[in-house]
């Protein structure tokens, strides 16, 4: 029976060890195998001809990095139809994103990849070199097979509803002006950009509690402490996103001199990227969020937040120090990205200086509970080559609740002299506008949300890189949406947007 061929990841190693001891040559193929086609059959048959036992290992659905909507078929279906093939002897679902753990599980005599992987540069993830090293480490050999080539991704994109209809239509339109290969070329060329980030450094502290209920006397919420996690937020989170795409990036901001600070900063900020001003008169911004333990498949439940933040603006002398630091750096950069959270760095003298001196200026001026009604983009800035903002921020800038979003975005872009402008509306849509008044509208890519915090910042980081590179509006919007989709699957800013994952997702969604 075909189901007897399907092994658990935990059970598999001992069986394969026994087969090797019997002198069997074990051949391994690994992948997502989201839709079996003739190219896969030929690949498996050619692989099987190299040995006695063919093992197909499959990336588990939670670990597939091909973007929203993938895999289209779940683990049970993918493993079942692989096991139904006569040439396949065993199937194992692998609970890891890369292939190294799969190789270590099987320890094959031969590990087979498609012929396109003979040139390592064709692998956008960069994992093929790790695969080769793992195969050698377990005493195996690499083989490249597959004389017939089809694409599961193209078949799924063309003939299956792997994405909502409006997303599919947008991706098809982007693909007409940007092939997967061109998309990769643009993303790779971001490495040539020199980016200066100026703005508020924030540390997001996630404190996980198990809620126990209300206390019997004071009627206050009671919870048992589970864990603490300090994450890079604000401009520091954006620095980490940008750092994934170019090493030429520096962060200028303002922090305090707390005893815990330097050790924490060192985990997020490389020495060559550190342009921070440190002052004992400034309180490093920490936003502590109390959350419940995460439940798989559900959005993170947040209880309340406590902010550690200065009530008053930095002194004139400290603002002058920040300006001097910016003055040292700003002539050297192609893109100046301002992340203004209204927490003390971007006071009027600093704003004025940056607007006068930046060659290409991108602005993200945010509204939050600490600055609501005060940090409004068209009251704080008179110029921005690029800006991104959300629905609440546009509403405050316009001064009305009922809006024609495209019209108001265009008028704000004209007011600021912007070449690109984006309005992000969470799970509803993103609207973009360029200097020739083209409008780009795209629905959210990702519907399964873990945490929305930081998704707008991730969009801003990648979209601004695209804007500084002169990328067409639809393509730049697509790139920003990919970053946002990746971000909402991450708790807070626990990790940056990963370039290989964005590349893989983008090339998958553009394959028509």
Question: Over the alpha carbons, how many angstroms does the gyration radius reach?
Answer: 25 Å
- Secondary structure tally: strands: 20
Number of helices: 18
Structural class: alpha/beta
- How much helicity do the residues have? 25-40%
Question: How much of the residues is beta strand, in percent?
Answer: 15-25%
Mean pLDDT: 94
Uncertain parts: none
Shape: globular
Strand order of the largest sheet: 10-7-15-16-17-18-19-20
Describe this structure in words.
This protein is α/β, with parallel strands linked by helices and 512 residues long. Helices cover 36% and strands 23% of the residues. It has 18 helices and 20 strands. It has helices at residues 12-21, 38-48, 75-83, 100-106, 128-137, 152-159, 165-177, 180-189, 234-243, 261-266, 316-329, 348-357, 377-380, 391-398, 405-416, 455-468, 473-487, 499-509; strands at residues 6-7, 26-31, 53-59, 90-94, 110-114, 141-145, 195-199, 201-214, 221-233, 249-252, 254-255, 277-278, 285-291, 302-308, 335-340, 361-365, 386-390, 420-424, 429-434, 439-443. Strands 10-7-15-16-17-18-19-20 form an eight-stranded mixed β-sheet, sandwiched between helices. Strand 19 (429-434) and strand 20 form a beta hairpin. Helix 8 packs antiparallel against helix 18, helix 9 (234-243) packs across helix 16 and helix 11 (316-329) packs parallel to helix 12. The longest helix is centred in the last third of the chain and has 15 residues, at 473-487. The two termini are 37 Å apart.
């Amino acid at each position: 029976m075909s189901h007897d061929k399907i092994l658990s990841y935990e059970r598999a190693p001992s069986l394969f060890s026994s087969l090797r001891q019997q002198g069997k040559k074990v051949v391994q193929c690994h992948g997502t195998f989201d839709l079996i086609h003739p190219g896969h059959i030929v690949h498996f048959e050619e692989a099987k001809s190299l040995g006695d036992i063919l093992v197909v290992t499959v990336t588990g659905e939670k670990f597939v990095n091909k973007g929203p909507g993938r895999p289209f078929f779940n683990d049970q279906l993918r493993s079942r139809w692989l096991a139904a093939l006569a040439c396949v002897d065993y199937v194992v679902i692998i609970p890891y994103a890369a292939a190294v753990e799969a190789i270590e599980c099987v320890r094959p005599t031969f590990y087979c990849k498609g012929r396109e992987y003979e040139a390592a540069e064709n692998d956008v993830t960069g994992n093929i070199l790790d695969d080769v090293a793992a195969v050698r480490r377990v005493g195996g050999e690499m083989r490249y097979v597959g004389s017939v080539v089809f694409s599961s991704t193209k078949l799924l994109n063309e003939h299956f509803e792997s994405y909502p209809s409006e997303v599919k239509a947008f991706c098809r339109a982007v693909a007409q002006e940007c092939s997967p290969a061109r998309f990769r070329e643009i993303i790779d060329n971001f490495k040539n950009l020199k980016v200066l980030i100026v703005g508020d450094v924030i540390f997001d502290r996630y404190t996980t509690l198990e809620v126990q209920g209300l206390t019997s006397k004071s009627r206050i919420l009671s919870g048992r402490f589970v864990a603490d996690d300090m994450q890079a937020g604000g401009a520091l989170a954006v620095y980490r996103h940008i750092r994934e795409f170019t090493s030429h990036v520096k962060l200028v901001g303002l922090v305090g001199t707390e005893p815990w600070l330097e050790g924490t900063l060192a985990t997020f900020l490389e020495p060559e990227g550190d342009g921070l001003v440190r002052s004992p008169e400034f309180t490093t911004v920490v936003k502590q969020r109390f959350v419940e333990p995460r439940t798989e498949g559900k959005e993170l439940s947040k209880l309340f937040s406590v902010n550690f933040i200065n009530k008053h603006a930095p002194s004139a002398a400290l603002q002058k120090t920040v300006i001097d630091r910016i003055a040292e750096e700003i002539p050297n950069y192609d893109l100046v990205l301002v992340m203004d959270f209204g927490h003390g760095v971007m006071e009027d003298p600093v704003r004025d200086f940056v607007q006068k001196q930046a060659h290409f200026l991108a602005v993200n001026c945010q509204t939050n509970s600490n600055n609501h009604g005060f940090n409004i983009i068209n009251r704080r800035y008179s110029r921005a080559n690029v800006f991104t903002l959300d629905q609440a921020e546009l509403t405050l800038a316009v001064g009305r609740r009922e809006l024609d979003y495209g019209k108001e975005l265009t008028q704000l872009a004209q007011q600021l002299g912007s070449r690109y402008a984006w309005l992000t509306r969470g799970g509803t849509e993103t609207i973009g506008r360029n200097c020739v008044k083209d409008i780009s509208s795209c629905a959210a890519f990702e519907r399964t949300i873990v945490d929305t915090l930081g998704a707008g910042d991730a969009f801003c980081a990648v979209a601004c890189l695209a804007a500084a590179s002169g990328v067409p509006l639809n393509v730049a919007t697509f790139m920003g949406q990919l970053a946002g989709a990746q971000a909402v699957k991450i708790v807070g800013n626990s990790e940056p947007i990963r370039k290989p994952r964005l590349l893989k997702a983008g090339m998958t969604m553009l394959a028509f």
